[in-house]
Design brief:
With 302 residues, this protein is mainly α. Helices cover 72% and strands 10% of the residues. It contains nine helices and three strands. A three-stranded mixed sheet has the order 1-2-3. Strand 2, helix 8 and strand 3 form a beta-alpha-beta unit. The longest helix is centred in the N-terminal third of the chain and has 33 residues. It is elongated. The mean pLDDT is 78.
Length: 302
């Protein structure tokens, strides 16, 4: 099962690398032919996507390396590092696009062969819609932050390509060529938000932020379904490393429960949680009841 997930993640990342390589080459060539800064900005955007896809490809392979002596908790956080680097690369792209766009507003250049630009924007949008949709699907199935970040990269490329397409159509109809750098600036502003979201989510994993509220509630509900078999639980903690979830808690059991019974019950709880939350590592610290709880008092009276 683990090998199958790893293979699926690696294959998805490789497809992203290949599709971005093709788009970068085509956009750059047509951007040069048409002399369009908005198309060249899209080539730069796809170039950043290519680097991000390559980083995701390396990250998903490294993240699947089993725990070892120096990394006893595994290598999952490399996916979070990948997401931060990808977000940083988008910020770099934003700066370069904005800088060149401002230059073009004041200097201005004549556009050529706009139809070629229209064609590459349509082609790019179609390719990235299919690839990003598939990456979102695989990232959800494998719980991969690196693939999710890569999918967001490609999805923003779809929106910006459609924006450039609309702008080129407007230029073709109105002959107002200053629209070209203005569109490129719009692209830069749009993808800034995506960069911030990717960076924020990836950093949360590195800072050992707890699991989402819905997931922690699920854990509590699973434990509470067995309320007849324990006295109480407390100190529930959770975090995520790449696609791995780490959960630990203190479980108060009856002082009359045998060691074997306690061990079996904890194993049962751990398996129940792991079934509902994939790739979970659960650690339960068992504590004996002090005999003063309401349940023990009831047992004594009976």
């Amino acid at each position: 099962m683990q090998a199958s997930i790893s293979k699926k993640k690696t294959y998805a990342a490789l497809i992203s690398v290949l599709s971005n390589t093709i788009l970068v080459i085509l956009k750059l060539l047509i951007g040069i032919i048409t002399n369009s800064i908005s198309i060249i900005s899209e080539a730069a955007h796809s170039g950043i996507d290519l680097m991000a896809s390559f980083i995701a490809f390396i990250a998903v392979k490294k993240a699947e390396i089993p725990p070892d002596e120096t990394h006893p908790f595994g290598h999952g956080k490399i996916e979070n590092l990948s997401g931060i680097v990808e977000g940083g690369l988008i910020f770099v792209a934003v700066f370069l696009i904005a800088l060149e766009s401002i230059k073009r507003i004041f200097v201005g250049r004549h556009l050529h062969s706009i139809d070629w630009g229209l064609g590459i924007m349509v082609f790019s949008s179609i390719i990235n819609i299919f690839v990003s949709t598939w990456l979102f699907k695989v990232s959800k199935e494998t719980d991969s932050i690196a693939l999710e970040a890569d999918a967001y990269h490609l999805r923003t490329d779809v929106y910006t390509s459609l924006g450039v397409l609309a702008g080129l159509l407007a230029i073709r109809l109105t002959k107002i060529e200053i629209l070209d750098p203005l569109i490129a600036l719009g692209v830069a502003i749009f993808i800034t938000k995506a960069a911030w979201e990717i960076t924020k989510r990836s950093a949360a994993g590195l800072m050992d932020q707890k699991l989402p509220v819905a997931e922690e509630m699920l854990i509590r509900n699973i434990i509470n379904k067995h309320y007849r078999q324990f006295v109480n639980f407390h100190s529930l903690r959770s975090r995520k490393s790449g696609s791995e979830r780490y959960i630990d808690l203190h479980l108060v059991l009856s002082k009359d429960m045998t060691l074997k019974e306690a061990h079996n019950f904890c194993n049962h709880l751990e398996k129940d949680i792991a079934r509902k939350l994939a790739r979970s590592k659960v650690m339960i610290h068992v504590e004996p009841c002090n005999g003063k709880c309401e349940r023990c008092q009831q047992e004594c009276q009976s």
